[in-house]
Amino acid sequence: MCWVSRRGPIQKAVRLAQRQAARQNLAVTTFSGCLLVTCVALSAGAVEQWGLFEVSFTGPDSGSPYLEVRFSATFSQSNRRIIVPGFWDGGGTYKIRFSPPTQGQWRYETTSNVPELNGKGGVFTVTAPTGENHGPVEVFNTFYLRYADGTPYHQFGTTCYAWIHQTGELQQQTLKTLAASPFNKIRFCVFPKSYAYNQNEPERFAFQRRADGTFDFNRPDPAFWRHLEQRILDLQRLGIQADLILWHPYDRWGFANMSDEEDDRYLRYCIARLSAFRNL
Questions:
Q1: Do 76 and 201 sit in the same domain of this protein?
Q2: Residue range 39-62: average pLDDT?
């Protein structure tokens, strides 16, 4: 318990304390005319080391969130600080994702140019990895690869550039084929490809389509991104690294013609949404 006050009008003190407590993740209650502020940070449960911690917030659902809202969180453990960008996930939903590199208790606090998303925070516990969770692949001794826990990684990859842009049945067939194969890495694309053996029109695209058939590069389609993330997790369960191509020239939809500014925003969005997946 931080403090007890009997001074001044209690309702005014309650309102003042609630505003301050909201910035510091404290609980405010009254008891027998006294104001109690309890030092209990919001808890978000537990996540494995190198797992995916995700927290959602409610913010603006009008205007152009992709362009206008700046949103990030600082994750801290002892003297370590890691700043992670957040992202808009459609409607009034905003998310932060973080893959904790160490076990123990972590804290986070958000920063935003939007009051509803600014100064939010909490604590969570990171537990030991389980099963086949060896962490992300990293460079070892310049010429080698290994997982973060030291387990050797011997890359044996394949390409399937447009598999997430095929029918659901074909995507499931691809996953079954990969499960029975020796491959531990697959290279594929965010944007669909147009070439001799791939002329189909995908069901989903990274950006929303206008009525005239063109794409609005200032408005991502959250449904596409959630689908992509599900496929990355499907590969993770198979022990397969996702080698993702962010741009390519084999295009008939206009994605290869985005401006430098649009490319930059798209890249930042990819980083915010996807960098916490340990197999990416």
A1: no
A2: 82
